[in-house]
Design goal:
Layout: H1 39-51, E1 54-55, H2 57-65, H3 72-87, E2 92-97, E3 100-105, E4 110-115, E5 130-133
Parallel strand pairs: 1-4, 2-5
Antiparallel strand pairs: 2-3, 3-4
């Protein structure tokens, strides 16, 4: 091991030179690469999220009980509405598609509940920060 000592005469015999200070506890090591998902993996997961929405158990029960059928075109419009709400920074939104209202957690891309026009007469939507007509 070689040490870079500017003037060996200044170090008394029998005294060991001081080593470089240790990094603080919990600090990341500079020589170790940071582990995590690759850019490609993050991009792929974000793209998958953007392509569709999920339905909560409650929303699925409401769809079944109220006889609301969702075709591919309706799902595509719903997903587009959620994307538009996300683009504006919305967190909770009501998305209207052909008269049916979908209350959606925009961040989670999850439909919380669905209300058809027949059941919407006296319905009040609370805890939403946006509305989208898709």
């Amino acid at each position: 091991m070689s040490l870079n000592v500017p003037n060996a005469a200044l170090v008394p015999p029998g005294v060991a030179p001081v080593a470089a200070p240790a990094p603080p506890a919990g600090a990341p090591r500079r020589d170790a690469p940071v582990q995590g998902p690759s850019f490609q993996e993050v991009l792929r997961s974000r793209t998958q999220e953007a392509q569709g929405v999920e339905f909560s158990r409650h929303a699925l029960q409401r769809l079944e009980r109220r006889g609301i059928e969702l075709g591919e075109q309706t799902l595509a419009r719903l997903s587009d509405g959620v994307e538009r709400a996300a683009g504006k920074g919305s967190r909770e939104s009501v998305v209207f598609v052909d008269g049916t209202a979908f209350v959606v957690s925009v961040r989670n891309r999850t439909v919380i509940t669905a209300v058809d026009p027949e059941h919407m007469r006296e319905h009040v939507f609370t805890n939403i920060d946006s509305a989208v007509i898709a």
